[in-house]
Amino acid sequence: MTGETDPASIHTTVLLQEVIDWLRPKPGGRYLDGTLGMGGHGLALMQAAGGKAELAGLDRDQEALGHARRRLEEFAGRVHLFHLPFSRFEEALDELGWDKVDGAVLDLGVSSLQLDEAERGFSFIHDGPLDMRMDNESGPSAADLVNTLKHGDLARIIRTMGEDPLAGKIASAILKAREKEAITRTLQLAEIVRLAYPPKMRHTARNHPATRTFQGLRMAVNRETEELNNYLETIVGRLNPGARLAIISFHSLEDRVVKHTFRDGAKGCKCPPHQLHCTCGSVPEVKVLTKKPQYPSEAEMAVNPRSRSAKLRVAERLGPDGEQA
Q1: Domains, the chain, with CATH or none
Q2: 2, 114, 180, 184 — which has fewest CB within 10 A?
Q3: Rounded mean pLDDT of 174-203?
Q4: pTM value?
């Protein structure tokens, strides 16, 4: 990499100190970073534990894993990297022979490595192939979706995951454009979406009109909501009592999923809401430590504007009797 800037050296990890303060890494502990990226949270966890903890780090992005491996090389032997989506974290733990971990972190944001490299197809500012796959060797790309989905399915993605109220109009514009030629480039799609906006909205919009469409397509391509649901179904069972789970989300849909899962885990009882008395005997599995999401500080947002939409929620695993460890 002579003469080149290592992306890991300029990547800004979101809510870094907050995650470390909540997880309280300790020597001898075992920790899971399900979205390792370029290793920011993982490196801080290892450093906070004096280099005497162990870390399992997962990522779908091979390029990011390469940067993380170099960044974490001082802890070789204690850091174990896996090319896996975070929903399959149990495969990594089972391979390591770890029954449970002492803390876990999940950062659901897109890294600057992905956003800033035009060839990855995430950017509506720089031209590149319309891809958006975090693992570019797996599954359909964004181009596959925009060129094959029916109007209703495309509008649903843009409305639900992109949260754009003009989803139907944008989907119609995409279908009309693809009748003339395949949509294969990021700027090609961005212009289609821009022109689908009424001129007044186009000029007064705070963000680029394509922002939400690109967000929705990215989430659909990478099955991000499904990934999160699968992870949340199993992660608590792999936490030691007293272990903490920290999740950073950037999308209101993902934040709601985390919020409701934490709330349900803290409630314990799984009886139907209309039932007056509990008969299931279930006890709370977690205690929610962040009653409201924690946001980046003003100082962090000033340095890293991309952190503005980040929300951190933290829960602690309770003992088998529903009490704190």
Answers
A1: 7-113+231-317 (3.40.50.150), 135-221 (1.10.150.170)
A2: 2
A3: 94
A4: 0.90
